[in-house]
Amino acid sequence: MAAAAAAVIIRKEKEIVNIFRGAGALTAERARDPEQLGVHQHLAFHRLVQRAVLRNAGDGRFYLDEMSWNALRNTRRRVAILVLAVVAAAFVVMLMAGVFASRS
Predict the structure, then answer these.
(1) Can you give the pTM of this predicted structure?
(2) I need a labelling partner for 21 at 20 to 30 A (CA). Which of 32, 70, 78, 95 fits?
(3) pLDDT, mean of residues 30-54
(4) How many distinct structural domains can be found in the chain?
(5) Is residue 82 part of a domain?
């Protein structure tokens, strides 16, 4: 259940990033009001602000920091790979220990 909720939030974050990118809001000078872009300031939006992916330019305007977005995506990718590696290692250890052996 938690994984599904996380996936929904991440998808929404990607949508928000694409909206700001599409609007050309990539610098403080070109910052835009999220409401004018149709972006509601809910959980996904606030997570992006907390992670400095969306930067406040003042007057309720924000812009996309592409470098922060790329860093966040790379961190998420590394975490996912690490989790998969741990799960695979645990599976191998259980396999070698005979946990999956047939008990007849």
Answers:
(1) 0.81
(2) 78
(3) 97
(4) 1
(5) yes
